[in-house]
């Protein structure tokens, strides 16, 4: 029921992908007006990106798609994307829609515009192509979640069998096989859906042979192929292990199993957040340790639950304390690696509540806290089960040393009493000491009547608490799946700090109403002024005048001057030129940073004009 609910939530609640890569700058700048048509469009990102066949769509003033060249990296830099434009572009506004694949395997897309010569009005909505197909995204996320679950169950169950050494491993065979097949199937689905997921198209595109071929050459596709290979090796290892259960070879089996588990975890670390950003080697090491600790703990819980249901009480006396120690070590590793990964992804404490990544991380931490509380409750019953073994070991006296050549007590040589056979183990003599009797004591104090592994009440309580742990762990893994597809707060802050040079701060686009007192359409309205880039040095200024009916109007003159009162600089005349529908210049020099007064004079006739002043900040 829990798995079905999670799948419904993932399929019905699919949202647009958020990736690690963020757009840093565009050339031409977003919203800019250039005098000459550019030969290329270049995007620069905060990290390396992969290109698609349809990474760019350029639309002209007539809303028709412009023929462009093949998308490439500019100057060999993997954090850029460039496309060539035709030699001659008509005047007007062009829209560029783009879509690339982030280094951490998630697609990211967007759009911007620039104008050649002058801006042109658009008459309708431009279809810039698909941003995200909800069904493809939902299926892809569901497969990712199943892969996480299956990997945790596979690693945890195998580790439980090798490290906790239960007498009977038959209850673990079915979940081990189910986890292997589920991971194999989900990986195959991810491999097929990779191309439509990147392109934002429907699931039917998964059967396009050329698209699948491109997937197999990219890093995410290669990581999925490597996962399939590791799974085949894992199957061979598990089959051989089940046929040759020789305890003398247990260290070799542990070494091989550990190597396969590390290789499996690397297929995630090499294609997700750890593979991009800062401190990549340390991040990948931390990610691998985090994934393995998660699997050993959470997958081991499922194995423990099955063992509690089907194993004898005597077997649990040794198995349960072993898993308790392993789980404690896993939680310690999770705490250390989780703290590092949180710092790496957040960048600041304020991002915990101010970003989507931070809020998801808080939700995950809350789930982990609940998980630890339940685990603490389970640990109480673990101590009760371990109590008989502790008491029994404490009651066995140390062996009494015998002189060399002396006969063993109770018979000739080392023979058992009355058997005449050598080598029969003897029960130790108590030498008059009373044998232990009564109820054993647990580490937490005296156990109640019937305490121990044979008490069905204690086993039932432990089984229930472990079942709650498994349920909470499934929810935590679901949040983790969403978190790995969300833009980290550090990358978001980096993109904001390193915004495109031509990006306009909010104060550089100002709309000012005017009224000359006449009743004509041009006598009142508003003028929209854009200052680009509002920094010290050369700036561009564009002014568009709207009449009282909100339509564009033609007037005799628009004049704009800039004054810096604090430094007694100005007025500096922008010397705007009529561009046939709007007024502009690209050569007004503002020499100092500070809060400038922008005075805009609108003349609607030979005798009617009005001036409006606004404050605009010029950055260094």
TrEMBL record:
InterPro entries: CopC/D, CopC_dom, Cu-R_CopD_dom, Cu-Rt/internalin_Ig-like, Ig_E-set. The chain crosses the membrane at residues 145-164, 176-197, 217-239, 251-271, 291-308, 320-340, 360-377, 466-487. Residues 408-421 have a biased composition (Gly residues). Gene3D superfamilies: 2.60.40.1220. Residues 402-458 are annotated as: Disordered. Pfam families: CopC, CopD. It comes from the Bacteria. Keywords: Cell membrane, Copper, Membrane, Metal-binding, Periplasm, Signal, Transmembrane, Transmembrane helix. Residues 1-21 form the signal peptide. One of its GO terms (cellular component) is plasma membrane. Residues 428-442 have a biased composition (Basic and acidic residues). It is found in: Cell membrane; Periplasm. GO terms for molecular function: copper ion binding. Residues 20-116 form the CopC domain. Residues 318-390 form the Copper resistance protein D domain. GO terms for biological process: copper ion transport; response to copper ion. SUPFAM superfamilies: E set domains. It is a multi-pass membrane protein. Belongs to the CopC family. This is Protein YobA.
């Amino acid at each position: 029921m829990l798995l079905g609910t999670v799948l419904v939530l993932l399929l019905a609640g699919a949202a647009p992908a958020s990736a690690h890569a963020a757009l840093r700058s565009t050339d031409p700048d977003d919203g800019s007006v250039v005098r000459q048509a550019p030969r290329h469009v270049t995007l620069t990102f905060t990290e390396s990106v992969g290109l698609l066949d349809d990474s760019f769509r350029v639309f002209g003033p007539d809303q028709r798609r412009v023929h462009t060249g093949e998308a490439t990296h500019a100057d060999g830099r993997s954090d850029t994307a460039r496309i060539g434009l035709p030699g001659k572009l008509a005047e007007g506004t062009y829209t560029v829609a783009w879509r690339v694949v982030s280094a951490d395997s998630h697609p990211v897309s967007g759009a911007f515009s620039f104008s050649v010569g002058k801006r042109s009005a658009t008459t309708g909505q431009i279809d810039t192509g698909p941003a995200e197909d909800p069904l493809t995204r939902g299926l892809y996320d569901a497969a990712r979640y199943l892969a996480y679950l299956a990997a945790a169950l596979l690693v945890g169950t195998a580790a439980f069998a090798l490290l906790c050494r239960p007498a009977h491993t038959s209850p673990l065979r079915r979940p081990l096989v189910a986890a292997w097949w589920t991971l194999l199937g989900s990986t195959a689905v991810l491999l097929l859906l990779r191309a439509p997921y990147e392109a934002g198209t429907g699931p039917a595109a998964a059967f396009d042979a050329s698209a699948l071929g491109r997937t197999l050459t990219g890093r995410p596709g290669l990581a999925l192929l490597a996962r399939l290979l590791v799974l085949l090796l894992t199957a061979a290892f598990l089959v051989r292990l089940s046929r040759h259960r020789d305890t003398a070879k247990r260290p070799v089996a542990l070494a091989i199993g550990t190597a396969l588990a590390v290789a499996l975890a690397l297929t995630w670390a090499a294609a997700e957040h750890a593979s991009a950003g800062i401190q990549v080697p340390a991040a990948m090491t931390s990610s691998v340790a985090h994934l393995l600790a998660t699997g050993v703990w959470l997958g081991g819980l499922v194995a423990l639950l099955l063992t509690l249901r089907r194993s004898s009480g005597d077997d649990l006396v040794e198995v349960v304390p072993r898993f308790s120690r392993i789980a404690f070590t896993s939680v310690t590793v999770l705490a250390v690696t989780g703290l590092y990964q949180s710092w790496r992804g957040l960048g600041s404490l304020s991002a915990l509540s101010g970003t989507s990544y931070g809020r998801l991380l808080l939700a995950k931490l809350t789930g982990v806290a609940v998980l630890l509380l339940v685990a603490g409750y389970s640990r109480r019953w673990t101590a009760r089960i371990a109590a008989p073994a502790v008491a029994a070991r404490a009651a066995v006296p140390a062996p009494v040393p015998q002189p060399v050549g002396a006969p063993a007590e109770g018979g000739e040589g080392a023979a058992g009493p009355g058997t005449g056979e050598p080598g029969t183990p003897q029960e130790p003599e108590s030498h008059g000491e009373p044998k232990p009797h009564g109820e054993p004591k647990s580490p937490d104090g005296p156990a109640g009547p019937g305490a121990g592994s044979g008490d069905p009440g204690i086993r039932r309580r432990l089984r229930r608490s472990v079942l709650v742990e498994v349920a909470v762990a499934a929810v935590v893994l679901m949040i983790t799946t969403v978190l790995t597809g969300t833009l980290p707060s550090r990358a978001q802050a980096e993109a904001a700090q390193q915004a495109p040079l031509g990006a306009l701060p909010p104060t550089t686009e100002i709309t000012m109403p005017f009224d000359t007192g006449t009743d004509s359409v041009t006598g009142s309205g508003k003028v929209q002024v854009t200052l680009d880039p509002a920094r010290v040095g050369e700036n561009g200024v564009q002014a568009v005048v709207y009449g009282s009916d909100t339509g564009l109007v033609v007037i005799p003159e628009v004049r704009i001057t800039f004054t810096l009162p604090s430094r007694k600089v100005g007025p500096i005349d922008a010397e705007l030129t009529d561009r046939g529908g709007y007024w502009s210049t690209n050569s007004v020099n503002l020499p100092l940073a500070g809060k400038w007064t922008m005075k805009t004079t609108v003349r609607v006739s030979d005798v009617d004009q009005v001036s409006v002043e606004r404050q605009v900040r010029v950055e260094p």
